[in-house]
């Protein structure tokens, strides 16, 4: 559905390339995550999909069409097919919720009656029916992002690009927005390409994920494989940042180990280990546990037989 073929991007007046030799396929109906540190090239990557940026070399194909080759009418069609939401929501502060959501329909020349009906359905779907006459300043961050989602869906797109959609939100609101995106993905068969710098977001919602570092894809695979067994140092860095609060400290004379186990028995007790922090859950339908343990240094070796054990 979305294909990157040897895509590189250099911005005029800058030294290096923001993206280098990207090959990537996003399948119809999947939620594809793009994760990386600040400046890695994530925004540039998704902005190529709706032709907000153009590749310096290579091609970006949407449904088999090279988006850089589109004329003005073709671009309008692309923008109807590809919706986008942003970290900072991008709402018009002088327009009500209903008028924000209806704006793409107004720009597309749809009649008032049709607009009103469609806007009412969209606002209801994102759970904002009682807020339709309010202005953005009267809404919480989560509500603003719901307006952004309703507006992005106004023209009935088959692809939704999400640029750090939850970075401005608290953890609980983040989860509810991600749940809404997952529901819309299933109900509408919407293909979602989602940028984030948070592993938690990948864990909650993505089917597959590409890790991007220094403008290249350094690792790509099923979200469970990347989250639980990512190999590249950039991936390991993002995983170790995913814990909450201050990093665990090993008691005197003990070794600190991150142990990740997958599948049946992944939460079985571990003799001789003190659990300092961790999580037990499911990702992509698979059980896992991800624990930070303090053990005797002589026990570290033994942990490797239980799962992936990294001394930290
Ligand atoms: N319009 C532009 N002109 C010049 N350089 C740019 C432009 N947009 C992005 N860049 C550069 O390209 C690189 C990648 O930027 P990009 O915004 O894609 O990264 P990112 O991973 O999305 O980062 P962040 O998470 O901080 O938004 C950076 O070095 C950035 O400075």
UniProtKB/TrEMBL annotation:
Keyword check for Secreted: no
Pfam families, per database record: ABC_tran
GO molecular-function terms, A-Z: ATP binding
SUPFAM superfamilies reported for this sequence: P-loop containing nucleoside triphosphate hydrolases (SSF52540)
Domain ABC transporter: 2-239
Keywords, comma-separated and alphabetical: Amino-acid transport, ATP-binding, Cell membrane, Membrane, Nucleotide-binding, Translocase, Transport
Transmembrane segments: none
InterPro entries associated with the record: AAA+_ATPase, ABC_transporter-like_ATP-bd, ABC_transporter-like_CS, MetN_ABC, MetN_ABC_transporter-like, P-loop_NTPase
Name of the molecule in the record: D-methionine transport system ATP-binding protein
Annotated organism of origin: Sphingomonas jejuensis
Lineage of producing organism: Bacteria, Pseudomonadati, Pseudomonadota, Alphaproteobacteria, Sphingomonadales
């Amino acid at each position: 559905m979305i294909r990157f073929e040897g895509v590189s991007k250099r911005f005029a007046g800058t030294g290096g390339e923001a993206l280098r030799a990207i090959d990537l396929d996003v399948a119809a109906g999947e939620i594809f995550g793009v994760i990386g540190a600040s400046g890695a090239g994530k925004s540039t990557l998704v902005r190529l999909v709706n032709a907000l940026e153009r590749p310096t070399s290579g091609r970006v194909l949407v449904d088999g069409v090279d988006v850089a080759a589109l004329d003005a009418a073709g671009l309008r069609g692309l923008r109807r097919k590809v919706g986008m939401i942003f970290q900072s929501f991008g709402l018009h502060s002088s327009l009500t919720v209903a008028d924000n959501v209806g704006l793409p329909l107004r720009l597309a020349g749809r009649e008032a009656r049709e607009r009103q009906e469609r806007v009412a359905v969209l606002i209801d779907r994102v759970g904002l029916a009682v807020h339709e006459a309010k202005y953005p300043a009267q809404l919480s961050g989560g509500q603003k992002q719901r307006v952004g989602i309703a507006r992005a869906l106004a023209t009935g797109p088959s692809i939704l690009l999400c640029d750090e959609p939850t970075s401005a939100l608290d953890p609980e609101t983040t989860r509810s927005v991600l749940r809404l995106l997952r529901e819309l993905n299933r109900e509408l068969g919407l293909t979602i390409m989602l940028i984030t710098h948070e592993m938690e977001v990948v864990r909650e919602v993505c089917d597959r994920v590409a890790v991007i570092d220094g403008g290249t894809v350094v690792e790509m695979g099923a979200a469970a494989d990347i989250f639980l067994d990512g190999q590249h140092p950039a991936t390991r860095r993002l995983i170790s940042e995913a814990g909450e609060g201050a990093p665990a400290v090993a008691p005197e004379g003990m070794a600190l180990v991150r142990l990740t186990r997958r599948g049946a028995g992944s939460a079985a007790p571990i003799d001789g280990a003190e659990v300092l922090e961790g999580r037990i859950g499911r990702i992509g339908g698979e059980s896992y546990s991800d624990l930070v343990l303090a053990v005797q240094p002589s026990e570290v070796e033994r942990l490797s037989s239980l799962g992936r054990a990294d001394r930290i």
